[in-house]
Amino acid sequence: MQFLQQLLNGLTIGSLYALIAVGYTVVYGIVQLINFAHGEVFMIGAFGALATWSLLFKGTTAIWVLPIIILGAMLASVSVALLMERIAYRPLRNAPRLAPLITAIGISVILQEGVRLFYPEAKSSLSFPGIDIVTGPPIAIGGLDLRRSTIFIILALIVCAVGLWVFINRTKQGRAMLAVSQDPDTARLMGVNVDRTIAIAFALGALLAAVAGVAQGLHTRTVTFNMGFMAGLKAFTAAVLGGIGNIQGAVAGGLVLGVIEALATQYLGGATWANVWAFVLLIIVLVFWPQGLLGAKVVDRA
Amino acid sequence: MSEPLLEVSNLEVSYGKIKAVKGISFTVGEGEVVSLIGTNGAGKTTTLRTISGLLRPSGGSIRFMGKDIAKTPAHEIVGMGLAHSPEGRRIFPRMTVEENLLLGAFSRVDKDFDADLREVYDLFPILEERSQQPAGTFSGGEQQMLAMGRAMMSKPKLLMLDEPSMGLSPLMMKRIMTTVTTLQQRGTTILLVEQNAQAALRRATKGYVLEVGKIVLTGTGQELLTSEEVRKAYLGED
Fold it and tell me: Which terminus in chain B has less CB density within 10 A, N or C?
């Protein structure tokens, strides 16, 4: 029973990793850039939801608030992601790879410190609003404690993954993304606006990160200005685990990482060690399967 | 014939400090097959990449159907009726044949692709047989057919083909060149870049010989085929 409970915890945290990891992988698949500021896009989403709630619905915990704070989170995350793409990354598209990497770290610091200026209490922890249906008392099934936020998070991952799949495989803009990821110049010859396609990749990653931000806020009921740092690193690990550039891989990698962490917490030295195991896993994967467990779908240009 | 379909005047293109194309001028009239021939590094591919907007000229002008397109972004040019089948085919390897062909129609506003798909499949039956297979598994000749078919899917007024015969067996090369003629007979204007001068000139209404970024010879296909310089330099005759 203990094992099942930990498995459930692992799937919860793993779903959050998966939602964030997709953002790393989609952007990498299109522009071969690791956007290390993506963890901050997730953090901004959580604060966007918090701000929407405090401005419009302070004190309300009804379910109808939920979609609106998710929209608020998305608006915040997508704006920030589009701005960073336009201002910071686009001018560096033909620069050596180190330049956008360092820029990403700079953006991370700016966003963290910016949030800390607006929310001085966010230094330790700021409480996140509750939404009854998600944050109410857990449901007992057999001997398991099923938290409502767990259901919400797993459902969110399913909805987002299906939505993303439909977008990429069934829409014209999705086909344009696939074309750009395989050969940007030839995609342009087909009539694909590459700049716009790259911006859309950033926006898609931000949408999912925003959902993750709200989900995490509802799950832990607190947010901090630096919550994106560790979450971002873990999600990056998940993306590498699944094969960077591969969307299914990012989802699978997130879930695997979450479960391994939860089981490690239970059986291998507690919560402090969970992070150690996560990064040990990253190193092992990088050494032995640098293509990731599901294999990357990048760089095989003809 | 009033105004040519494509008019390139004093075109200059540079890579950094190196000038790859040094002021060339040529025209392509409606219904023509125009061949640009020359050795490696003569600037043929650079010229095509500049016309389709992938590169920016450092001087001169490019007029297509009377409109200056030198500053038009590449993704808008194909929608104007100018398709470019690039050097090395550059098919999308992880997409199926059909997905590749449909991407060729990406710039079109109408959604009526079935007839055009049919036309490509009739021209290259092997593509229909393998329509659901990933294009990356194809041989060079099959990839070339796919690249040409993909370019046709945009219903171009002018089709630019960059080295369609490169690396192909003589039989496949003949096949591709016959298709060029077929396309011309159906009313597509063609700008053909080739190292295989003989094949390119035999079908050309007009030819230009490029050497290190400059046009050194002009004439009808037949004139160039029989000219002493071309025979010596490009057809390997003494």
Answer: C
> B189-194 and B33-37 as β-strands: parallel, antiparallel, unpaired?
parallel
Please tell me the distance from the alpha carbon of residue B148 to that of residue A157, in angstroms, as a whole number: 41
Domain count, chain A: 1
Domain annotation covers residue A270? no
Record the pTM.
Answer: 0.92
Considering the segment(s) B6-233 as one domain, its CATH architecture is: 3-Layer(aba) Sandwich (3.40)
- ipTM for the complex shown: 0.93
Using a CB-CB cut-off of 8 Å, the residues of chain B touching A301 are 93
**A119-152 as b/e, with b when 16 or more CB fall inside 10 Å?**
beebeeebebbbbeebbeeeeeeeeeeebbbbeb
pLDDT (tens, 9 = 90+) of chain B, 238 residues, equals 568 999 999 999 999 889 999 999 999 999 999 999 988 889 999 999 999 999 999 999 999 999 999 999 999 999 999 999 999 999 999 999 999 999 999 999 888 899 999 999 999 999 999 999 999 999 999 999 999 999 999 999 999 999 998 888 889 888 899 999 999 898 899 999 988 888 889 889 999 999 999 999 999 999 999 888 888 877 766 5
Q: Is residue A118 part of a domain?
A: yes
Q: Which of B75, B90, B92 lies at the smallest CB-CB distance from A191? A: B75
**Interface touch A188/B99, C-beta < 8 Å:** no
**Tokens standing for residue A154:** 């797993």
Q: Which residues form the domain of A90? A: 14-228
Q: List chain B residues with CB under 8 Å of A185.
A: 54, 86, 90
Compute the distance between CA of residue B104 and CA of residue B102 in angstroms, rounded to an integer.
5
To the nearest whole angstrom, how far is the Cα of A169 from the nearest Cα of chain B?
11
Q: Does residue A129 lie in a domain region?
A: yes
Using alpha carbons, select from B189, B148, B191, B188 the residue that is nearest to residue B168: B148
**Which region holds residue B61: left if phi is over 0, alpha if psi is between -120 and 50, else beta?**
beta
Question: Could you give the dihedral angle defined by the CA atoms of residues A70, A72, A75 and A80, in that order, rounded to the nearest 10 degrees?
Answer: -100
